[in-house]
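Table S2 (continued). Query chain:
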Amino acid sequence: MKAGFVSVLGRPNVGKSTLVNALLSRRVSIVSPKAQTTRDDIMGIYNAKDLQIAFIDTPGLFSGGETLYRRMNRSARRSLSGVDAVLFLIDASNRDLENDISLLASIKVDAPIFIVLNKIDLARAPEVIEKKERLVKSFPDAKVIECSALTNFGFSDIVSSLVEVIPEGLPLFPEGQFTDRDESFFAKETIREYLLRFLHEEVPHEAAVAIKHLTKTDDGYDIEATVYVEKESQKAIVIGRGGAMVKRISMSARQDLEKRWKKRVNLRLRVEVLKGWRESPTLLDKLGYGGKD
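Corresponding output:
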């Protein structure tokens, strides 16, 4: 059989997580319309007959001065180590191609690179043709694939292209495993997904979630979690009038996790202020965003 690792890179909001989820036909990464939804490398394991591909979904590549964002960028670039191929996603509907070309040129890897023009369902045909011509000229060794992660268009081209470069080998993961992450990680990310859905502007981006306690019970899971924000005003927004917002977030996350795990979930959610956590290496380590600056 063939088995290998594929890093999925690109600017924020180009559809990396949506693509990985769709390829696996299951939700591994959280998604939202907001940029910088993904903060961690998340592995989604694709299994087919005589084929296993471990897709590494990564944070969006961009220039950010905060310590958190610098670590996210390094995390994305570290995913290139030892991979068998790279999928570099570009939003076909975004007219700004220069930043994509600059980022793509900065990627130093021996593995073959496949440029995926995603969201072509939102782009005009002449714009797609123009982008393809520019990319082929700039990166003659890379193959350009048109794709729409929302409609599953182009998936067969992506998989067949990867099959050509994935090496022969034993399975990397046991049959039935679809990710490298545990229940605690999915609980944290699910809560963060509803922060992104229900809150606006800077609040969800300045919030972090920590799972303080997760135990399996006879009929499900018991979870205690804390949402950390940087300001008292943000804490008030997350809690909401009479606790309405934090109850909405907690209830939605609990129902989502129960659907995912098909078991009862008891979720208790607190909100606390942790000033400067995005700039503190020590606090970032404690919150799980490790890595040297």
